[in-house]
Request: fold
Amino acid sequence: MKGFRRLYRIFQLTQAGSIARRYFVTNGFDGVLTLFGLLVGFRLSGTTEFGVMIQACLGAAVALGVSGLSSAYISEAAERRKELKALEQAMLHDLSASEYGQAVRLVPLLI
Reply:
């Protein structure tokens, strides 16, 4: 239970919930459009083998999942480090060992 409280506190501190929702919706929408494009392409090309269509769609879904997770992690980690550095400069103090500093390192993994 203590771990869940800590995660909840980190999400509150960094306002990560809204960011995670945006990434989920954006990546979900990209996935739906990609699969729709694949299905339209199969239909227009005359390829109607169901197994081929399913395998291609599953492959695209895996690729989009990996792409979405990795791009979200890379961009979020960079943004969080930038925010922490700006806050440290404004406060003239190293915050890497603080609760916020720890949250900055953990949140990109959770999102």
